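FORM 7B - TANDEM STRUCTURE REPORT

SECTION 1: FIRST PROTEIN
SEQUENCE AND TOKENS:
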Amino acid sequence: MKTLIVGASTHPGRYAYLAANRLLSYGHEIVLLGKENGEVAGYPILHGKPELEGIDTITLYINPTRQPELYEYMLSLKPKRIIFNPGTENPEFEAMAEERGVQALEACTLVMLGTGQY
């Protein structure tokens, strides 16, 4: 299962950084998207709107005010679900996703992994 982490960070204290490493430790494939330059666990942080295929899950770590510019891009990836981690909840985008058959979850990726719900 391939997960796109939106809001990827090279800072070890950030939840996006923790999620990237935890997803890898659980055997999930990751793709990182963010504004920072660098890499996490050997994976480069991509910028802009790269062409991607096979994205099963998008997990968000960006503020709702930064999400609108990525709405159509993220939906064009045709994920099965989008996880709105704490602080990223966005009723407008959640409704758009659901209308297109994408499951919108207000949840925590780290908790989901830890409890076997991922």
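SECTION 2: SECOND PROTEIN
SEQUENCE AND TOKENS:
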Amino acid sequence: MHFKKHILAALIVIASYSHGSPVGAASFDCAKTDLAADEKTICENRALNDQDVRMATTFDILTQLMAMGARDELKTQQSEWLKHRQTCAADVACLTTAYEERMKKLGEAFLNINRPL
């Protein structure tokens, strides 16, 4: 179990350096003028911005590792989570908790990936 956690952590670090946007940039365009309250707060708060990048990178890695059915379920869960995140609006504590909970769920999804031995 610990080995899988270390692999996921290493993949996230590698992916964050090879991500299409600069490290530390949110997973969405902060320059847009029509940002929702949660997105605006994430763009303005470095810690939340970093959490967003880690979450998006982890999600991207998991979608590549999972079988199609599990991938579809993960995408559905992600859409539901994004709707939940929006309800936080500009509440930093709520957003922080939302990201912590999502990363826990993504970590659990990674640990549950079935692989042939």
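SECTION 3: OBSERVATIONS ON SECOND PROTEIN
The chain has one domain: 2-111.
DSSP finds five helices and no strands in the chain.

SECTION 4: SIGNATURE
Preparer initials: ____
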